[in-house]
Amino acid sequence: MKIYSYVDTLAISYFFGSEDVGIYAVAYKLTYAFQFLPLAFVAALYPAFSDLVQRGDSELSRIFRQAMFYMMFLATPIVFGIWAVAEPLIAISVGSEFSASAPILSTLVFVLLFIFLDFPIGSLLNAADRQTLKTTLMGLTMVINVIANFILIPRMGALGAAIAANISFAFLFFSGLIFVPQFVKISWKRFFWKLLRIFLAGLLMGLLIRFASGTLTLFFTIPLGVFTYLVLLVVFGTLDRQDVCKLYAKFASHH
Predict the structure, then answer these.
(1) 56: how many CB neighbours lie within 10 A of its CB?
(2) Burial of 39 (0-12, 13-18, 19+ CB in 10 A)
(3) pLDDT tens string for the chain (255 positions)?
(4) Distance of CA 42 to the CA centre of its chain
(5) Please, what is the Cα angle at 115 between 111 and 117, to 5 degrees?
(6) How far is the C-alpha of 175 from the C-alpha of 132, rounded, in Å?
(7) If we measure between CA atoms, which residue out of 26, 186, 172, 11 comes closest to residue 93?
């Protein structure tokens, strides 16, 4: 993790200099600031996984599906929302002089989809006493990230580092997902169709916000995006009354 955290910055500094490092750092911090959400979620999820794995309980599959649903539900509006308002967000948060960070942020923010979805997978593997496997996958991810950075950064600058991050975290997610069927039984077609509908709702929300941001401020576009996202989930049949009640109960329990 230390190597992964610094290799992109070091490579940008080596090939381009400190100014490009500063531009990349803005996008980096705005993106990874959201990691506390899955971390808080998994802190509660891991003990349940550990107990159910030990008991061989069939409830494990249902909880895993719910965990992936909640992670996708949370990550999607964040990703597409930031993608849609990257330029005004950069201007408001750090100043228009860092406008070059906007396209980097618009690309880098998609790593959150893979990061959020990987947390339940990592938690499941650790709970199933497969820590060595998880650590090996993380090591391979680090190698892929280093190689991708040194290939892409000389050609594309800081944007190359953002693409490298997406490539490496996509590998971490999909490589971990391969081992999930060893512990849970899932109808994969139904599972991915549900995640895809969430993704489409987020994409349409993002396109609407991007169009509206030309005339509306962030104060109006963010509530508009949240409302649109929830309505689309209901229209697509992804979010029903039971899901709304569960989400509200979870939100209320933390306040």
Answers:
(1) 8
(2) exposed
(3) 777 778 899 999 999 988 999 999 999 999 988 888 888 887 888 888 888 887 766 788 888 988 999 999 999 999 999 999 999 899 888 888 889 999 999 999 999 999 999 999 999 998 888 999 999 999 999 999 999 999 999 999 999 999 999 999 999 999 999 999 988 888 888 889 999 999 999 999 999 998 887 777 878 888 888 999 999 998 888 876 666 666 656 555 555
(4) 14
(5) 120
(6) 14
(7) 26
Q: d(Cα 6, Cα 161) in Å, to the nearest integer? A: 11
Helix axes 111-127, 59-84, angle to 10 degrees: 160
Contacts of 200 (CB under 8 A, 6+ apart): 232, 236
Classify each residue of 121-145 as buried b or exposed e, where b means 16 or more C-beta atoms within 10 Å of its C-beta.
bbbbbbbbebeebbeebbeebbebb
